[in-house]
Every structure is written in C-alpha cells, then in structure tokens.
Amino acid sequence: MRALFTRLATLLGRWPIALAVVALLAIVVLLPGLAATGFWEPQERQLVDRIAPRDKLAAQRAADEAKAKTAAVAARAAAVEQAKKAGKPLPPPAEETCPKQAPEDTVARTLTTRVPALGRDLVDDSDAGRRLPIALMGILTVLAAAGIAMRTLGARAGIVTAIVLLSFPLLVLQSRMITTEIGTACGATLIVYGLVALGRGRGALGIVEAVVALAALAGGCVLGFVGGGLLLGAIVPIGAFAAAGALGVPVVRSIIHRDRAAIVEDVKALLATLLAIGAIALLAYSIYELRRPYPGMLPPGRSIVGHVVAPTGCWSTLLGGLWKPEDDLRIIYDSTFEQIAYGTFPWGILAPIAMAGLLRAPDARHRRLGVLALAWAGAAWIAGEVFQRKVGFTVFAGFPPMAIAIGGWLDLVMTRPSTDGASEPPPIGPMLLIATFVGLAVLDLGKDLQSFTEHLTSILVGSDAIAYPTQSRLAFLPTRVWILLLGLAVAIAFAIAIVAKRRSKLAARATAAMLAATVIVAAFWSYAWLPALGVNLSSKTMFDTWQDLHHAGDQLVVMGDLGDAPFDYADSKFEKVDARDQIVAALGRPNRVFAIAPQTELCTLHREIGGKPYYVLDDRNTRSILLSNKLDGAEDHNPLATAIVHTEPKAIPQRPKGAVIWDKKIQLLGWDIPKTVSRGAKFDVVLYYKIIAPVGGTWTTLMHFDGPVRFSGDHKPINDRCPTSTWQPGDYIVDTFTVTAGGATFAPGPYELWIGFFTGTSPNFKNMTVTDAPADMRDPVDRVKIMSVTLD
C-alpha cells in the first residue's frame, strides 16, 4: 500500500499528469447536470427572461420601454419649452451629458447577460445551453489557479489548490448559476497566471509557454473588464501582482547582480505597476471632475484654486456602474467578511494562516506565492468593499488566491521534507493549535449556516434575498445539515493529518481522507445542494410533475408571474389568467384541468372553491402551487384539506365544559392532547376552532405549559399557511402541530396548559381578549386553561 502511495505521488508530481487530473476534477464537478436544476425564481428567472424574451411577455417589455422613452421625450420637450418662455438657455439632453444608467453599447460588467445569451445562440436555447459558457469559465478559473501554484511550487501544489478551490461555494455556485460574476474571478486568475508564467521558459518550449501566457493575459483582461469593469476585473489583479513584486523597484539591484530570473520578474512587476497606475488614472478621470463648489455639495470637498474634485454622478463606462456622490451607509466596511466566510466554507478559514505560513517559509518561492496571494486577496477585498459602498452589490472575486495560498501551504506542510534536510516534522504544538482553531471555526460557521442559511442561498444576489426553504431535505436529513457534517469531516481529517507525524501511515491516510472529503464537498454543491434547493426555488420541478401526470386533452392554466418558465418547461399550450376567479372557474370545468397559482392564493382559493373537489399535486415550490380538479391516481398534498373545513369535525376527543370565545370571533371547540408525556419528548397537539366572525389581523397561538418552570408551544396556526386574517365565518380550523416537552432537566409533575392568541413582539405583546369562558378557566391576561399535562 505504501509503495502504491509513493508511486501515485510520483506520478502526480509530473505536471502533464497533474494538469490532466485538475482538468478532469473540474469537468466532473462543474460540467454534468447543468439542465438538472431549473432557474431559481425570481432572480435567475428574471435574468434569463431579459436575455431571451418571448411572445407577449416580450411585447409587454417592449411596450414598457417605449412608454418610458416617450415619457422622457415629453419631459425633455416640456423643459425646452419652459426654458424658451423664460428666456433661459436650453437644458442639455440628460442622456448625452450625464447618463444615469448603462448605455446600450456598454461593455464593462455585462458578462452576466452576454454569456448566457452566447450559450443560447451557439449551443442550445435550454437551461444547459445557457449555463455551459459559465461552467467553462469556472473550469478555466480552476485550471488557471492550479497553473499559478504549479508554476510557483510544483504539480502537487496545483492539484491541492484545485481541490480546495472546487470546494468553495463561490466557485461552484457561480459556475452553475446565471446570477454569476465568475468572469471577474476568471479574468483576474488568467491575468495573474499570464504575468506569473510569462518569461519563465526557454527554447522552443519557452516560446509556446510565452504564447500561452500572453493569450491568458489578453483573455483575462477582456474577461475581467467585461465581467467586473476596470476596477474589479483589471486593477485588482494587475495591482496585486505589482505590489507583490515591490512595484518593480528591485529591478536596479537585479541588473547590478546580473540575475536574469530576477530581472524578468522585476520588469514584469514594473510594467504591471505602470499599467495599474494608468488604469487608476483613467478610472478616476471617468468618475471624477474638477468643478466649483456649491452649497450642500456631497461629499463636501476642500477647494483648490477655487475648485474641488467631485464625482460626476454619471455612468462610468470603465467602472461599469454609477459612482455615487454619497456612500451607501447600509454597507459597512466589513460587510464582505460574511460572504468570504460562507462562500469559501470549509477551507477559507485557513487562508490567513496559510498566507502567514508561506510568508515566513525559508524558501523564496513560497514567500513569493504568499505575498502574491495576500496582495491579491487583500486588493479584491478592499476594491469589493469600496464598490459595494459607492456603486452597488458585487460578489467577492478574491477567492482564487485564498485557494492558492491554502494549496501551497498544505503542500509545504504535508508532502515536502523539512527545508533544513531534517526528517523531523514541524513541532506538534503549533500544528495542534492550528488544528483546534480550524476545527472550532468550521464548527462555528457550520452551526451559523443552520440558522442563517440565507447568507448562502443569497450569496450571489445579496441582501439575504433568497429565503432558504426549510422543508428541503436530502436523503434522511435536512439539506443544510449536510453542510455542517461534511465541513466537520474535512476539518477532522485535516486535524489528524497535520498533527500526526508527516511520514506516518496515519498522516498519509488522513491526508488522503482530507482530500477525498474535500472532493465530496465540491460534488455536494453541484450534485446535492443546487438540485435539492432547486426543487423548492425553481418552477421546473412543478412543471415536471405536470409533465408526468397530464394526458392529451388536459388543460393547463397559469396565474402569477412565472416569466418565460411555461414556455421553457411546458410542452404544450397553456392559458394565462390574471384573476383568482378564473382559476376557480377553470377548476370547475368537466374535463381535467391543471392550474398553477401563487402559494399566497391557496387560502382564498380554498374558501372560494368551497366544498367542490380540488387537489394540490405539488406544493414544493416556495412561490407557486400546482392544482387540479381530478386526482386520477396522483397524491393529494393539500395542507388545507383537513386544516380548514366547512363542517364541524366529528369525534373531537376533549371539549371545554363551557363556551370559550375570543373577541366574539374565535370559538374553541376542543383539543386532542396527551395527558402524560416524557420530558424532552416531542408530542402532537390538535386544536379545534369555529370561526364566528372575520378575525382580521395576524395572531399567533399562545400556548404556555406552566409548572415549576414554563415551556412553550407558541406557534403560527396551521403552520403559517393561512394567517388568522384569512379566517372567515363558517370556517372550522383544525390546527395540528408539534410541541417539545421542555427538556431532560425539567422537574416531573403536572403542568397547567394555558392557550390564547397574541400579537406583537417583546415587550409589547397584546393578547386577544377572552369575551366568553368559565371563570375558573380564564386569567386576568386573557389566557384560557384547558387541561394539565404531566411530565414523567
């Protein structure tokens, strides 16, 4: 076995084989199954619709644009006429002097729309066709990052870098989703690779390598500019390379010492410095101007010779955005940290340690890579923070240097002999400290992602705009739990690998397990996370259900804003409706009808359909629901079929001894609750209500189990599917939910159960008034005691 590992390590140490392994890994992780997951809605769907509008949706958009242009022309004409009457100079056309939005011919930061359109035109007008160019840019990013590590440290470092980079959600998600800025990261990585590789080889091979480096440099500049604009896509990587090379200043010393290799590196750094300075000057010229100060100027500036340098407030074709005169105070200067932490989970936490380790390494190659990675990641962070505060949202593009630093440091610590020739591994103390830190950090971040999963689902659009669908499950666990488990698997294997002796069998096996677990994490984002969440966040799965169930002659009626999804995922004509009563009428037809409606309409539809049969065939989508008037062997998933009924439920197990009514609107009919439960156990509770009058407002069910201490069963009725504001006379509510019986430390014995309704938040709670109840069942704060539950 050890001989096999040695042979494998030797093979992977050869760069052609290592490059092939990196390419294979990137292709396997990023390329297959591009059509398996539909476009997330609404963000991805809206972007795709703008790229490929169709039919009346396109006509509507064109009409809206024409209307806006007509309004602008009318406003311009009115301003000109007013100026003529007042005898004032005519106002200049706003679009010509100071555009406030992207011109039609703009190039910077347009890759997000250009690449999917290119895939549609060159490959196929499908989900996979639109995503293919994006996935290819992700593969190119991995190859370029691995190439930087290979060029600097060797083949094995490149493989480790690729594996680490592929485990980053920022890389995988951007390589497989339309809402991506992968072009910025890809362009920057190609630029850095081109600068690193240029001038390294000699002879015929050196000429080939120079051609490849120049092609990478040119392609990177184009991708970087189109993807991120001049600031994020070009100044960051070029400036970072210049900073890592001390701005080319050491070139004089290198010439004196006649060190050819050093001269080449210093000259490249000097040229990068000049390019960066020129790019910064051009960018500043496009967003700032010299003007006379005026009262209330934002930001206030100090005048020089009667003038101040102030932002123009116009669209910059080099920046790819509008540089705001004032800062966006909602963005703090560490706002990108969460994006970095969650977007590089689980390995990103090691990046600062890896950079520090490389910077203090005895070998100059490691130090050079450490300086480059630190300068690149730091510049990307600073530029990203400034961009978000002054322009708008952007995705952090400095994750490739983090992976490069981690890959180089892991290769240094785990696979190479000591630099002084000794056979002893590094002291166990520092390694144990690093292992403990990484393990605790991964545990903490993984735990945070259980409560704040929106940070990850919204990482490409910002502002926690995409709520995590809590119903999502993968195999036997909630989907988000797998993030924590896989992250801990990587952290544990890493801890064992760096603490164990470098040449021991345990260290070798732990290293192999660590890399294998990292590959599994990479595959998880592509093959598990995206498809699992796509079930709830894309309407594709809902249309797949319709495809499986419908037959010739069945009709499909669509209500709500689904964009072009019906054109993409339905293989026959559909009827577009705008009102709820049209859905009700369609479901009343004698033939089989399928209807898609917003989830928010289900409660009202349930009431308006009344006692007529209807069925929910797919309720997994967070925005829409698939209904039908005939079941025909399918399964009904209607959550309201037994929760809101129109006749009084029979065989209610327990009833109050007198009328219990809140606010003359809600009457308690009874309940089904066990009288004895085990401490810490979960048990089901059912409450039965009759609605006497429209309830109005949004109330939460109050449920207090009062004993030596209190445990609570407060909850939104009917799992928050139909708020109390939708409850109407004639409704019978069957509210079923689960309560946890305190904890193992709770004292055994009886706990009195009080129920009611409340609204507001602490400390401004308001309970719904109890208007009728036996005196011994009520208390002064409008709670009703219905029974005692014994904890054993």
Overview of the molecule:
Helices cover 50% and strands 13% of the residues. The chain has a six-stranded antiparallel beta sheet, with no helix packed on it. Strand 10 and strand 11 form a beta hairpin. Helix 15 packs across helix 17. The longest helix has 42 residues, at 203-244. The protein is globular and about 100 Å long. Mean pLDDT is 88; it is low at 417-423.
Provide a compact summary of the structure.
By secondary structure, the chain is an alpha+beta fold. Helices cover 50% and strands 13% of the residues.
Ends: how far apart? 56 Å
Number of strands: 23
Poorly predicted segments: 417-423
Strand content: 5-15%
Number of helices: 25
* Computed CA radius of gyration, to the nearest angstrom: 32 Å
Overall morphology: globular
Helix/strand/pairing category = alpha+beta
**pLDDT average, as an integer?**
88
The largest sheet is: 6 strands, antiparallel
Task: Tell me roughly what share of residues is in helical segments.
Answer: 40-55%
Strand order of the largest sheet: 12-19-16-14-13-22
Summarize the SSE layout with pairings.
Blueprint: H1 2-12, H2 15-30, H3 43-51, H4 55-86, H5 94-97, H6 111-122, H7 127-152, H8 155-166, H9 169-176, H10 182-197, H11 203-244, H12 251-257, H13 260-287, E1 288-291, E2 308-311, E3 315-316, E4 321-322, H14 336-343, H15 351-359, H16 364-390, H17 399-414, H18 428-451, H19 454-457, E5 473-474, E6 477-478, H20 479-499, H21 505-537, H22 540-549, E7 555-559, H23 565-569, E8 575-577, H24 580-587, E9 593-598, H25 602-609, E10 615-618, E11 624-628, E12 644-645, E13 661-662, E14 666-672, E15 676-677, E16 682-691, E17 700-706, E18 710-712, E19 732-740, E20 749-759, E21 766-767, E22 770-772, E23 784-791
Parallel strand pairs: 7-8, 7-9, 15-23
Antiparallel strand pairs: 1-2, 3-4, 5-6, 9-11, 10-11, 12-19, 13-14, 13-22, 14-16, 16-19, 17-18, 17-20, 20-21, 20-23
Helix pairs in contact: 2-7, 2-8, 2-21, 3-6, 6-7, 7-8, 7-9, 7-10, 7-17, 8-17, 8-21, 9-21, 10-11, 11-13, 11-16, 12-13, 15-16, 15-17, 16-17, 18-20, 20-21, 24-25
